[in-house]
Each structure stands twice: as C-alpha cells, then as structure tokens.
Amino acid sequence: AEIYFSDNRVNFKIDNFVLYSNLIEGEFFKYEQILPNQCDITVITDTKAMTDSILRSSLVITSDIKSPLKLDITKEGIFMQSSTKHGKAQDMLNCEVNGGPLSIGFNHKFLIDALRSCDTDKIKLEFTSALNPLVIKSIDKEDFIYLILPRRVLTYPFSFAYSTMSAIYLLIPGYLFKYDSMISFASFLDISRSFARVNSVLP
User: Fold this and answer.
1) Distance of alpha carbon 111 from alpha carbon 105, whole angstroms
2) Which of 50, 34, 54 is nearest to 123 (CA)?
3) What are the Cα distances from residue 60, in Å, to 68, 86, 147, 152?
4) Cα pseudo-dihedral 53, 54, 56, 58, rounded to 10
5) CA atoms of 75 and 59, how far apart (whole Å)
6) 21-80 tens-digit pLDDT
7) Whole-model pTM above 0.85?
C-alpha cells in the first residue's frame, strides 16, 4: 500500500484501488488534559466477569428509558444496580478494591463498549470521585486507556425525567454539560414546554 499526503487530503493506494479522505483542520483534542493526575480508588477485576455483571444488573434499562447504572464500590467489591419503571436489577462483582467507598453512575453501554475493546483478561479501574471520569486500563497492555464520564444517579420516577431531558439537551447544543451539573424536575418541565413550542412552529 502507498500513502500520499497533500495540504488537506490523504490518499491510500492499494493495488488498483485508491481511497482518499479529507484531513481534519485544527489541533487534535488534547485528551491528556482531562485524564486525572491521581486516583483515590483502584479496582482490579476480571474483564469477562465485570462484563457479565453489568449485563445482568442493567436488564431493566431499555432504549426508551436510559437510566444510569449505579456502582457502589466498597471493600467487598462492586454492587451494581439499576431501577426503572420496568423494575430493579442488581448484581455483585467480587474484585480487588483499594480505597473507597464510592457511589457513581454510568451509561452501561459505555462500560460494555470499553470492556469489549480491551483484549485482556484483567483490567484496572481508577476512580477519583462521583463527578470525575473513570479511567480503565489494561493490566497487560500499557497502550490501552479508556475514559468514561459519569452520570448523575437518580431514582425512578426521576430517572425518567433525567433520560427524557437528556434527549432534549442533545438537540439543543451547548446545554448538555449544564444539564449534567444541575438537574431539577421543574427545569425539565420548562424545557419540555419550550421544546414543544419550537416543534409546533417548525415546518
């Protein structure tokens, strides 16, 4: 294969095929700046065991109600639980924990994606607080690192408001981080009404 660069394009030539792509302007996102410099809690666990535990404890989370998966980290391990209008699900993961305790919430699909991307039997989880990102590292491979931002944990029925309001914020640029840092049911109702009015005047 041959690779050619121009000012704003890269070309890949493989035999009789040529593939080109436009280059992204600007500086690549400096992800190192948001990586925590230190962690207060470390967890070492089996990758498959944690994946299975997440799947069991998130059975009641559906596409229409994206309630966060709550992780309660103690010396005994990680207790995972979710609660929606469909019911409750929970599971206990026995693992090696240093530090804690800590209660934190995540989108369970992001956790599953991270674990399935890590081609190793054991992983290391690094926590700082309920508001700071989770860093996932491979025990065997130094070049693997995965960053996941937490979600605010609310109990049903407020988890429904959280899920619905999240979808609305995704459609209104610039409000996602404000939503993550300040949540109220009254705000959710106000935004819902405003969004409905906008929809009613759009063609």
Assistant:
1) 11
2) 50
3) 11, 6, 25, 18
4) 160
5) 25
6) 888 777 777 777 778 888 999 999 999 999 999 999 999 998 887 789 999 999 999 999
7) no
Lookup: tokens for 86 = 């469909």
DSSP the chain: -EEEE-SSEEEEEETTEEEEEEPPPSPPP-GGGGS-S--SEEEEEEHHHHHHHHHHHTTT--SS--PPEEEEEETTEEEEEEEETTEEEEEEE--EEES--EEEEE-HHHHHHHHHH--SSEEEEEE--TTSPEEEEESS-TT-EEEE--B----TTHHHHHHHHHHHHHTSTT-HHHHHH---HHHHHHHHHHHHHHHHH--
Report the amino acid identity of residue 95.
Answer: C
Amino acid residing at 124:
K
Q: Residue for token digits 């229409």?
A: 64
Q: In this predicted model, what pLDDT tens digit does every residue of 177-198 receive, in sequence order?
A: 333 333 334 444 444 444 444 4
* Size of the chain, expressed as the number of residues it contains: 203
